Structures are given as structure tokens and as C-alpha cells.
Amino acid sequence: MITYKDAGVDIEYEDKIIKALISQIKFKRKDIKPVLTQHYAGAVEFGDYYLVLTTDGVGSKMIVAEMANKFDTVPIDMIAMNVNDAICIGAEPIALVDYIAAGKITEEIAKQIGEGLNKGAEEANINIIGGETATLPDMVKGIDLAGTVLAIVKKDEIITGEKIEEGDVIVGLRSSGIHSNGLTLARKVIFDIAKLKIDDKLSYGKTVKEELLTPTKIYVKPVLEMVKKLNIKGLAHITGGTFRKLRRLNKNVIYYIDNFPEPLPIFKEIQRLGNIDIEEMFRTFNMGIGFCVIVSENEANKVIEIANKYGIEGYKIGKILNNLDNIKKGSAVINYKGKRIIF
């Protein structure tokens, strides 16, 4: 039975690395105050607004792109990982700068990356205002793609999760698949254990290439419409560490998920091929829910209606509790087919 740690990614150790890094960053300007430095996005005061910044990359999904010699979808992933974080505090993404580091890059690859950047920018409704390309043959053997997004939100409209309370409903929005997290474990299972090739078909008909290079869903347009029309109390982008991300919101409640929809086929396939425990699956992959919206019970159906309008399935997957069987407040708990997973 293989785990994410066995594949080379130790989430708990990464947490320690982040804490060590952050512990040494103590300087703050006195005239421009930072806020939400450990939320989904960082922000600084700017008049009546907060300027919001996020930064992220594609991760090892780029290795799959290199195997397939197909680079036009991973830029969408990069944009999605950034803008989906920015909207978690109710901010509207407006601009992006990208960074490409490569040992060597061809004109054809650059063209494909450009196509993907353009499509992702259109889906997220942002301007790409600049970037940097670095050729580093002594440092980088493949290609790495990252970006930084600027977003804005009025000070009195920021969403932090502090208004979340018992009885609120957690609405889950469908992911498009594996998104951009857990690829290290997915690659280990598919290529090393199952010995599949990039163009081989999975048991449900899709090829490995088609499934693993399906880009991350961009939730900007539906979520911003929800923010505009409804009283949104909390927003969570489900990525690395999956439902642990809910803990970034209100730490005085428990996030109880007891109505999780059927996982997408790719997750069932990975679990079967790798003989992976269901708890490890939920700790590594989004399992079919890429974003969570927390609202009062009377607005949950409206969230689903707006999601459906943009072609995204929505489900009432759970609720907010004040107490649960001696579970520590701030925890996320998934009750899936009799198995309790605590984050």
C-alpha cells in the first residue's frame, strides 16, 4: 500500500519547512499594513481597497506535459491555482505575471504555453501584463512554470470566514479531475506501479494523457457572481493537503462533511491501481470537489444554481458544527462510507 510520502511528498514535513521560513520573516512596513498573511492570499491596505497577491506554479504536472509533449493546458493550471486562491477572500483577479524557467525551450513549446496562458486568462478574465523567461541549463533540466496574480477587494467586502457559524452549509463544487496536486503520487501509481504509458487507456476509456492533462477548473466567474449576489461566509480552494484547507477559515467551528459525492473515475482508478487506503486518497487528492462555498442553509440551493449556470455541479456536502465527539475546533472531518477522516 503506497502513500504520498512514499512517492516523495511529505505534507507534514512541508508544513515544518514553511513554518521555519515564515518564522524568519519579521520585517513589516509601518505605512502599508499587511493582512491575511496566512490565509489563501496575502493582502495589503490600499485606500478603500486591499491589494491581494497570490503565487503558485504547475508542480510535477509539468513532467506529464513533457512526457506527452503537450504544453497548452498546464498554463491554465497555473492561472487556476492562483486565481482560485485569490477569490477565496472575495477578491477579483485582475492581472498576472508569469515566470518560465527551463534548461532549454523551443519555439513550438513557447507557442503552446502562450496559447494556454491566453485561454486561462480569458477564463479568469485577467490581463497578463508581463513575465520572465530564464534559460538555466545548469539548474533546470525540464521546464517550470509559475505566476503571480494581483487581485482587488473593497475593505468592507473581504471574506475571511469569521462569520461562519453552526448550521451553515458547505457546498462543494465539482473539480475537473486531478487538478494540479497529487501528481507525484498519481505518476508513481500509473507509471511505476501499473506500468502504463502516456497514451494508454485507463479502465474507463480516457487515455492517461487526456486525464492527467485535463486543466484545473477555474472558478472565478461563478464564485464572483455568488459573492455579488449572496451572503457568502467562507470560500476554500481544495488543493494540496485537500480538506485541511478549510482550517484556514474560522478556527472556532468544525467542518463536518458527511455527504461527499461519488469520487471521479480517476481517483477510483488511482486507488485501485495503487491499493491506496481511502484516508490517504482524501489527504492527497481533491476526490472530485475542487472548491467549497459556505453559506447559510437558505442560500445553499442558490449557490448550486449559480454553479450549474456555469456548467459546474454543486453538492451540499456538509455542515458547520460547534461540537463533535471531542473533535478539536478548527478541524475538518469527513465521514465517508463509515470511515472518519480528521484533518
List keywords for this structure.
single chain; 343 residues; alpha+beta; seven-stranded mixed β-sheet; six-stranded mixed β-sheet; 11 helices; 13 strands; 25% strand; globular
Could you explain how this protein is built, in words?
The chain is α+β, with helices and mostly antiparallel strands. Helices cover 32% and strands 25% of the residues. It contains eleven helices and 13 strands. It has a seven-stranded mixed β-sheet. Strands 1-2-3-6-4-5 form a six-stranded mixed β-sheet. β2 and β3 form a beta hairpin. α4 packs parallel to α5 and α8 packs antiparallel against α11. It is globular. The chain starts with a helix and ends with a strand.
- Average pLDDT taken over every residue: 92
Number of helices: 11
Percent in helix: 25-40%
Determine the structural class based on helices, strands and strand pairing: alpha+beta
In percent terms, what proportion of residues is strand?
25-35%
Shape: globular
| Most strands sheet | 7 strands, mixed
* Sequence stretches where pLDDT stays below 50 over 5 or more residues: none
Write a brief structural summary.
The chain has 343 residues and is an alpha+beta fold. The protein has helices spanning 4-7, 11-23, 61-68, 74-86, 107-124, 183-193, 208-212, 220-229, 265-274, 278-284, 300-309, and strands spanning 34-35, 42-46, 49-57, 92-102, 127-135, 143-154, 169-174, 234-237, 254-257, 289-295, 314-321, 332-336, 339-342.
